[in-house]
Write a structure and sequence with these properties.
By secondary structure, the protein is mostly beta strands. The chain has one helix and twelve strands.
Length: 189
C-alpha cells in the first residue's frame, strides 16, 4: 500500500486508568482473525493522477501469546493513513514498505511492526488479499512481542471479499473507494 511509520509513545511500564499494569510484552502473539477495511480518497481509478490518501483500519481478535510475560492482550487494533503521489489502481500493486502500530486492548504496550513490502494473494475460494512480508522480504517489531530476534519471523495476511479481478474491474470503471477486509491473521515473533 504505502509507507507509514507510527511511533509508540508508551513507556515500558505504565498504569492504565483502571490501575492495571501495562508492560512491554516479550515473546510472541498470534491473532487468528482480522477484520476492517481500506478506504481511498479520492477513489482509485485506472488513470488517477491526484495524490492519494488511504486509510487502513483493522482489528485483530482471537489473540494468544507464547513465551510471553503477558498472558492476555485481548484484541489489537490499528488505524493508519497513508499517502501516495497518484490515485491509479496500479499504485496498490507497487512494492513498498508498510509500518503500523498495533494497540493492544489489555496487558501490553503497542507493537510497531514494519514489513519491507507485501504481495498480492488469492485464497482457494478466489478472494483477494495481501501477504506480509513479500517473498524474500523482511519484518521487524519494536515494542511488545519482538520475539527473540526483533520480530524477523513476523507475518500477516488480510483477505477481501471480492477477488483481485473484481477489484480491478471496479477500479477501472466507477473507481474503487474502499475494500472490506473480512479475514486474516497476524503473528508477531
Amino acid at each position: 500500500m504505502a509507507t507509514a511509520v507510527l511511533a509508540s509513545a508508551c513507556s515500558d511500564t505504565q498504569t492504565s486508568a483502571a490501575n492495571s499494569a501495562v508492560v512491554r510484552a516479550t515473546g510472541s502473539v498470534t491473532c487468528g482473525s482480522i477484520t476492517g477495511g481500506l478506504a481511498f480518497s479520492p477513489p482509485l481509478t485506472a488513470t488517477g493522477t491526484s495524490p492519494e490518501s488511504a486509510t487502513i483500519t483493522l482489528k485483530a481478535t482471537g489473540c494468544t501469546t507464547s513465551g510471553s510475560n503477558v498472558s492476555d492482550v485481548g484484541s489489537g487494533s490499528t488505524k493508519v493513513t497513508l499517502t501516495s503521489p497518484t490515485s491509479m489502481c496500479s499504485g496498490v500493486l507497487t512494492l513498498r514498505s508498510v509500518a503500523l502500530t498495533i494497540d493492544w486492548s489489555t496487558g501490553a504496550t503497542p507493537s510497531t511492526v514494519t514489513f519491507s513490502g507485501y504481495s498480492i494473494a488469492s485464497t482457494p475460494a478466489g478472494n483477494g488479499g495481501f501477504a506480509f512480508p513479500n517473498p524474500g522480504g523482511t519484518a521487524r517489531v519494536a515494542g511488545s512481542f519482538p520475539g527473540s530476534d526483533g520480530g524477523k519471523g513476523s507475518t500477516a495476511t488480510i483477505t477481501f471479499d471480492p477477488s483481485v479481478a473484481q477489484l480491478l474491474t471496479v477500479c477501472r470503471s466507477s473507481g474503487l473507494a474502499s475494500i472490506p477486509v473480512t479475514a486474516g491473521n497476524v503473528t508477531l515473533k
